[in-house]
């Protein structure tokens, strides 16, 4: 057990949770939730990065907005319902307010659910635009990690996503009155800041994926495969030490850990299969040749016959 002096030093060096008032603020009659702003900033960042990466391959940058209009709503809906149905006990119990199922602003948006819904939206939008799904997915993959990093700040403002108790200097302070504070633990206990660990892991993943992509000229969905492997490995470890309300599970393993294992398996399988099926480069990010728009050329004036005139 640390001494009183050591405890004081640990608290002085630890990460304080922000004041609860920072979780939301009033903008006229509207209540703006910081968590929602973090998610929105991630969506904007991912859209800009993906647009830039596709633009370098000659894709119209406006296509990204078309994809966003399909992928984001489906991603948010699936993220919320994935979270709810992997935390059934938190939402369905005697006397529960069932409207909380839809209270997305209070936190609880499962990344794996958003991937499923977002993938469906991307598939629909790419088909409508005549764009290769794998080309878009590869452009999006590192941008997803940036978006997830920004979104994790929302967990910080909501005082959630923390792990086992720790005596490390960067332990996270969680107030004992927080409903997520583990029962039986003394006030002042510090916890692993899982939101911060994931931010660091994700940003490191951006650097690694971009380096590998450039070194080996990866296409045909293999960048997406690296994303699934990288994120799945990191998330499986974080979920294993998480103690704030975790997902329901099977065989004593939380659902999010199982989902992480599945993500890693899909990533490895996708990488191997696509490497064998497509050893060369993508011919074009488009499914079919784009119609070329002829440049405007002014028409030459019709020759005007000279009128011969004679004077007598």
UniProtKB/TrEMBL annotation:
One GO CC term, this protein: plasma membrane
Q: Where are the transmembrane segments?
A: 32-51, 63-82, 102-126, 133-151, 194-212, 224-243, 255-273
The EC number on file is 2.5.1.145
HAMAP family for this protein? Lgt
List the pathway annotation. Protein modification; lipoprotein biosynthesis (diacylglyceryl transfer)
Which PROSITE patterns does its entry note?
Answer: LGT
Annotated protein name in UniProt: Phosphatidylglycerol--prolipoprotein diacylglyceryl transferase
Q: Name one GO molecular function term.
A: phosphatidylglycerol-prolipoprotein diacylglyceryl transferase activity
Report the membrane topology from the UniProt record: Multi-pass membrane protein
Q: Keywords assigned by UniProt?
A: Cell membrane, Lipoprotein, Membrane, Transferase, Transmembrane, Transmembrane helix
Instruction: Name its GO BP terms in alphabetical order.
Output: lipoprotein biosynthetic process
- Its job: Catalyzes the transfer of the diacylglyceryl group from phosphatidylglycerol to the sulfhydryl group of the N-terminal cysteine of a prolipoprotein, the first step in the formation of mature lipoproteins.
Which coarse location class describes where this protein primarily resides? membrane
**Top EC class per UniProt?**
transferase
Where does this protein reside within or beyond the cell? Cell membrane
Q: Where does a 1,2-diacyl-sn-glycero-3-phospho-(1'-sn-glycerol) bind?
A: 152
Q: Which family does it belong to?
A: Belongs to the Lgt family.
Instruction: Kindly list any coiled-coil regions of this protein.
Output: none
Which InterPro entries does this UniProt record tie to the protein?
Lgt (IPR001640)
Q: Does the keyword Transferase apply?
A: yes
């Amino acid at each position: 057990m640390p001494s009183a002096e050591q405890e004081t030093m640990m608290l002085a060096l630890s990460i304080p949770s922000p004041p609860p008032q920072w979780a939301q603020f009033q903008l006229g009659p509207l209540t703006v939730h910081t968590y929602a702003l973090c998610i929105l900033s991630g969506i904007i960042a991912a859209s800009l990065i993906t647009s830039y990466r596709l633009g370098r391959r000659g894709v119209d940058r406006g296509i990204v907005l078309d994809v966003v209009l399909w992928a984001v709503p489906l991603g948010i809906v699936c993220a919320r319902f994935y979270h709810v149905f992997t935390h059934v006990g938190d939402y369905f119990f005697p006397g529960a307010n069932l409207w909380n199922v839809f209270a997305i602003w209070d936190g609880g948006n499962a990344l794996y659910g958003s991937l499923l819904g977002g993938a469906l939206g991307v598939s629909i939008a790419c088909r409508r635009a005549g764009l290769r799904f794998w080309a878009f997915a590869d452009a999006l993959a590192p941008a997803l990690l940036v978006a997830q990093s920004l979104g994790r700040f929302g967990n910080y403002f909501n005082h959630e996503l923390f792990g086992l108790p720790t005596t490390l200097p960067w332990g996270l302070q969680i107030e004992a009155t927080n409903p997520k504070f583990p029962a039986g633990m003394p006030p002042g206990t510090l916890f692993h800041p899982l939101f911060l660990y994931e931010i660091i892991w994700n940003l490191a993943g951006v650097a690694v994926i971009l380096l590998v992509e450039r070194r080996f000229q990866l296409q045909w969905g293999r960048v997406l495969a690296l994303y699934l492997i990288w994120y799945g490995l990191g998330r499986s470890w974080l979920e294993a030490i998480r103690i704030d309300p975790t997902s329901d599970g099977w065989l004593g393993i939380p659902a999010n850990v199982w989902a992480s294992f599945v993500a890693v398996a899909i990533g490895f399988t996708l990488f191997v299969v696509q490497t064998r099926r497509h050893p060369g480069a993508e011919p074009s990010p488009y499914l079919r040749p784009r119609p070329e728009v002829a440049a405007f050329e002014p028409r030459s004036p019709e020759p005007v016959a000279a009128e011969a005139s004679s004077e007598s």
